[in-house]
Amino acid sequence: MKFIRFSVLAAGVMAALASASAAEIGLTIEAATPGPVISKYVYGQFAEHLGTGIYGGLWVGPESRIPNTRGWRNDVVGALKALRVPLVRWPGGCFADQYHWRDGIGPRAARPVRVNTNWGGVEEYNSVGTHEFFELVEQLGADAYVNGNVGTGSPQEMAEWVEYMTADGKSSLATLRAANGHPAPFKLAFFGIGNEAWGCGGNMSVGHYADEYSRYATFLHPGGGNKTQFIAAGGHDDDTSWSEHLSARLRTGRFDGVSFHYYTSPGPDADGKYGATGFGEAQWISTLSNTRRMDDFITNNAAKMDLHDQHKRLSFAVDEWGTWYDAEAGSRSGFLVQQNSLRDAMVAALNFNIFHAHADRVRMTSIAQMVNVLQAMIRTDGDKMVLTPTYHAFRMYVPFQDATSVPVKLEHNPQYAFGGLAIPAVSASAARGKDGQLYLALVNTNPGERADVAVDVAGGRAGSASGTVLTAAAMDAHNTYAAPAAVKPAPYEARAEGGKLLLKLPPKSIVVVAVR
Q1: Which residues have C-beta within 8 Å of that of residue 318, sequence separation ≥ 6?
Q2: Please, are residues 388 and 377 in contact by the beta-carbon 8 Å criterion?
């Protein structure tokens, strides 16, 4: 057999590893057949003006007792930097189509107060505006994805915002930006023209939105050397009409991708039925089964885009995805606060593997959301902070950023079944990292059985594997301020014996390793 070691493991995991050997799954990595590059932007984040997703969770202001750098929390920013966050989407979401950028410039004390009618009806003091946002992405070392206002804005307002952010020279808006503290143009990597035009962005038909997109895009002229990518507001769930219509119709020269939104829930909308914790195996498998629908959604939308964009110039940008459960008991209405468990980390890893498999089209995504909202990386309460299992999944997958995908083939992969649902027991993805290493990511969806995976590298050898494993004793295990390390990665190592590299995956686990 082979040598396998974990430095930190729960007693339940040790018992699983000591159990009788599971049926062996064969996995072949076609390392000599490189595929498309997995863009680093697949690991993007989303920060909307929603609840404490920004205010309190990220922004505390320069005068706060919580340690900060120009208003942004040092602890949260420091933790996010470890994820190598490549992109942040802002200011929404639904908030974007009611946001007027001039509200968020100039002295903070003089900025107007608005009502955030989308999220809780709270007062929006506009303390975080354009300059503050770009300060955040600069601290993170990330790129900016700004979403413009089609719903309540105008082409002139949007064009002036793009000019304000990017113009160099002596235009009045470039001069105004300099007077507000930033003489140089901002780097604007992505710009979204509206959001969810089919819903909160204006309840438009796809044909009407296509006309609006073309009108708005005509007047957008980024300066300052920016090569901004423009993203159209696309569809959601199993609706492919937006991808098909927009890819067929838009010919503005400022059209680089179609967005797509899909949120994973255990079942249909039904408040009070689907908590983020306290669930059983029926909701475990239904959640994982539902999140695997992302693969079909991407496949079906990509097929429609292929009809009009055979060379795959356009990106399919999944710029809102993640889990959506009932709000946490006692939380404020409209703040979308939910706990984050091992199940959420599994959802993240399954989606990563799906995105990798579609790297030719999926070149940017942003999970909803960064802090305190929906499937967050981090939760905060005053000066307290805790990292979620989803945070750890993102960190484990860092080597896949800008890596070159390579095909994997699974053989004898059993089904994990419960309560009338069945999904593949193991999900896998492999890539050649920028450092030259061959990386393999594996997810064992079965919460009760170990999976044994025999790894073969076609045309090469698989002598050892080292990396990390994420698992826990309970399906809903999660981190709290009192127990912040209840779910965290542990080292994982395996060595081949007799020419075979066998990776033993604990029940309900994520394993990411370098294969040598």
Answers
A1: 259, 260, 261, 262, 294, 298, 355, 362, 364, 365, 366
A2: yes
Where do the domains of the chain lie? 3-35+405-515, 40-401
What does the pLDDT look like over 171-214, one tens digit per residue?
A: 999 999 999 999 999 999 999 999 999 999 999 999 999 999 99
112 cis-preceded (ω within 30 degrees of 0) = no
Q: Which residue has the tokens 């790894």?
A: 455
Question: Of 42, 44, 48, 52, which Cα lies nearest the Cα of 90?
Answer: 48
Q: For residues 108, 109, 110 and 111, what is the CA-based torsion angle, rounded to 10 degrees?
A: 50
Segment 146-151 shows an average pLDDT of 98
Give the pLDDT score at 270: 65
As a whole number, mean pLDDT of residues 342-360 equals 98
Tell me the CATH number for domain 3-35+405-515: 2.60.40.1180
User: 17 falls in which pLDDT band (50, 70, 90)?
Assistant: very low
306-315 residue pLDDT tens? 999 999 999 9
227/254 Cα distance (integer angstroms): 10
The superfamily (CATH) of domain 40-401 is Glycosidases (3.20.20.80)
CA distances from 513 to 32, 151, 459 (A): 18, 45, 19
203: Cβ–Cβ under 8 A, 6 or more apart, which residues?
Answer: none
Tally of helices (H runs) and strands (E runs) in the chain: 11, 28
Report whether 301 contacts 316 (CB < 8 A). yes
Q: Give residue 424's pLDDT band: very low, low, confident or very high (50, 70, 90).
A: very high
Sheet containing 403-406: give its strands across.
3-6, 490-495, 464-470, 509-515, 438-444, 426-432, 403-406, 37-38
Q: What is each CA distance from 226 to 132, 143, 187, 191, 221, in whole angstroms?
A: 19, 12, 6, 11, 10
Burial, 179: exposed, middle or buried (Cβ in 10 Å; 0-12, 13-18, 19+)?
exposed
Residues 246-259: b if buried by 16+ CB within 10 A, e if exposed: bbebbebebbbbbb
Name the percent of the chain lying above pLDDT 70: 95
| Per-residue pLDDT at 273 | 85
Active site residues per annotation: 196, 320
Residue 112 carries which side chain, given as an amino acid letter? P
What was the pLDDT predicted at 253? 82
**Type of residue numbered 304:** K
- The Cα 18–Cα 79 span in angstroms is 35
